[in-house]
Design brief:
Elements (H helix, E strand, L loop, with lengths): L29 H27 L10 H6 L18 E5 L6 H11 L11 E4 L9 E4 L5 H11 L3 E4 L8 E5 L7
Parallel strand pairs: 1-2, 1-5, 3-4
Antiparallel strand pairs: 3-5
Length: 183
């Protein structure tokens, strides 16, 4: 083994309490402080990233946007079709109750109100497969007929409308429920 000559760095005075920083013992808990700062920084970055994504996707309003932009953006209402009587559209009237001949009575009443499509030979009248229908529903299979369906509900004075392909053979189909009262 090699031996080196002693120099002035090999003799340390006894009253010198400080030794090189790299030779001193590690302070207790120092690793936890570093971990805590790293976790805090990661948490902040995650929250800022999620908020940024929510703003970009439009699920959250941008709190840093100017108020003039936010004030000018008014929500647009959902457009609904105006009820429009269409005397030429074919209407199928189905009786969903136990009342006999109700489909004919409703069809005749609609013809009197101007719905020529409910007349015998233009539209059709029959009993529904179920006789315990509670609510009257007007079904339409083409979105262009929504206005006519709304007007038909107003003519019946009861019921709701529903876009459906269940009765695709007829542009408008009325299923009379027990909530319908003859005029």
């Amino acid at each position: 083994m090699a031996t080196y000559q002693r120099d002035r760095f090999d003799s340390v005075p006894d009253d010198l309490l400080r030794t090189g920083a790299h030779r001193g013992p590690q302070k207790r808990g120092r690793g936890w402080i570093t971990f805590a700062w790293a976790a805090l920084a990661t948490g902040i970055l995650v929250v800022v990233g999620l908020l940024g994504l929510a703003i970009v996707n439009g699920k959250l309003a941008n709190p840093f946007a100017s108020s003039s932009v936010a004030a000018s953006a008014t929500p647009t209402p959902t457009p609904t079709m105006t009820p429009l009587l269409n005397p030429t559209i074919a209407i199928t009237v189905l009786n969903g109750t136990a009342t006999a001949n109700l489909a004919n009575s409703v069809g005749d009443n609609l013809v009197k109100q101007g719905w020529g499509g409910a007349a015998q030979g233009v539209g059709s009248r029959a009993n529904a497969s179920a006789t315990d229908v509670k609510q009257t529903v007007v079904y339409y299979s083409d979105p262009a007929n929504e206005g006519a369906a709304r007007a038909l509900v107003l003519s019946l004075k009861v019921g709701t409308i529903q876009l459906s392909d269940v009765y695709s053979q007829s542009p408008l189909t009325v299923v009379i429920g027990s909530d319908y009262k003859l005029p």
